[in-house]
C-alpha cells in the first residue's frame, strides 16, 4: 500500500514539473512574407532567462528583470503577453522566408524547453489559357489552366455553371521546378449547355481565399433563345394591328353600304334637270333677268313643264316673254307659272310652237 502511494506521488510531481512551460500553437502555417507568432508561458515564477531558438539557432533572449535583450536577427522580436505578469512572452517572426520553416523552441533556462513546428508556404500564380470562347449548344469545349510558382503543390479546382467540378471530370499534371516550386496544369472538357463563367482556382492551406482566373463561355443557342423572348411583344403588336385593320375595314364597309343605299335620280329626272338649267340660262340671257338659284318647282307643274319642254321646236322667240323678278317665293312663282302657261296657250293657239319656261 505504501509503494502504491509513493508511485502516485512521483507521477503527480512529474506532471506538475512537466506543466511548468507551455508553448502555443504547436504547429503554425503561414505564407511567405507574413508574420509568425508563438506564445511561451512559464508557470514557475522563479525563472530568470527565456531563450528562443529557430531551427536550433538562438535568435532571441528575454530576461525576466530586463526584458528583451538586443537581437542579432533583425526580423525577430518579442512582446509581453497582456494577461501575464512578465511570465508569458510572444515570439514574433516578421517577414517569414522559406528557410525559416522548421522548429521553433522556447527554452526556459533551468526549468523546461518546449518545441513547435513552423511551415512557410509560397503563393504563385494561376492562369486560364486563351480568351473567352463561343460555342454551339451541345459542342465539346476544352479549357486549360496552369498554376505556377507554388509551394507546396497547390490544389487546383474548376468551377462551371456556379458549381465546383468533381475531380474525376478533369485531368491534372504536376512538375517541380527550381527552388522546390511546383507547376500544376489541368485540362477540362465540358459540354456547352448554357453560357457561364469558367473559373480555375488554386490554393494552399495558408491561403484564406483561393486565387482565381476566369474566362467567359458563350453558348450560341442560348443567345438565340433570348431573342425568342421578343415573340410575346411582337405577337401583341401584330394582334393590335390586325384589330385596328379590321375596325377600319368595317368602317369602310358601312360607309360604302350607306352610299349604295342613297336613291339615284331616274333618267327622266336627269333629263328634266338638264333642260331646266338650259332653259333658265336662255331665258335669263334673252330677258336680261337673273336666275334665282333658290327656286325649286312644286306641285303638278312638273308634268305640264315636261310636256311643254318635249314639244319645244328648234326656234325660240324671247320677245313675247316678260321679265321675271330676281327673287320670288315658291308659292307665287308656281301660280304665276300656271297663269303664264294658260295665257300663252290661249294667245298662241294659232301658232305651231308653244314656248314656256320656269324660273
Model description:
The protein is of the alpha+beta class and 359 residues long. Helices cover 30% and strands 33% of the residues. The protein is built from 6 helices and 19 strands. The chain has helices spanning 2-18, 220-228, 231-261, 267-287, 301-310, 330-347; strands spanning 21-24, 27-31, 36-42, 49-54, 57-63, 67-68, 76-80, 88-93, 102-108, 112-121, 125-128, 133-135, 140-150, 155-160, 163-164, 170-176, 182-191, 196-203, 211-219. A 6-stranded mixed β-sheet has the order 2-10-9-4-5-6, with no helix packed on it. A hairpin with a 2-residue loop joins β4 (49-54) and β5. The longest helix is centred in the C-terminal third of the chain and has 31 residues, at 231-261. The radius of gyration is 61 Å and the shape is elongated. The termini are far apart. 16% of the residues are buried.
